[in-house]
Design brief:
By secondary structure, the protein is mainly alpha-helical. It has one domain. Helices cover 60% and strands 0% of the residues. α1 packs antiparallel against α2, α1 runs antiparallel to α4 and α2 packs antiparallel against α3. The longest helix has 17 residues. The protein is globular, with a radius of gyration of 12 Å. The N and C termini lie far apart (25 Å).
Length: 81
């Protein structure tokens, strides 16, 4: 399973908990944009951080095997390199 498949799976798991029927589609479009950035040379950690936030960002970072940057409030580590 490649990294994109892992991220899509994480979005699908997250989407099951959402009340907004469009949340999954919006997240998948954001994933496309993040993957385009990553293909253009931006680190995967920064691409995900730029396009996602909150619990979904944490789930995606974990799925990708990256260190978690979003801790909420004062625990946010900031934008990765």
């Amino acid at each position: 399973m490649n990294i994109r498949d892992k991220l899509v799976h994480a979005i699908c798991v997250w989407d099951r908990k959402q009340r907004n029927p469009y949340a999954g589609a919006i997240a998948l479009r954001a994933l496309d944009a993040a993957m385009d950035d990553h293909t253009a040379g931006v680190s995967l950690a920064r691409a995900l951080y730029d396009h996602f936030s909150d619990r979904l960002l944490t789930a995606l970072e974990k799925a990708a095997g990256l260190p978690v940057t979003y801790g909420g409030g004062g625990h946010d580590r900031g934008r990765p390199e």
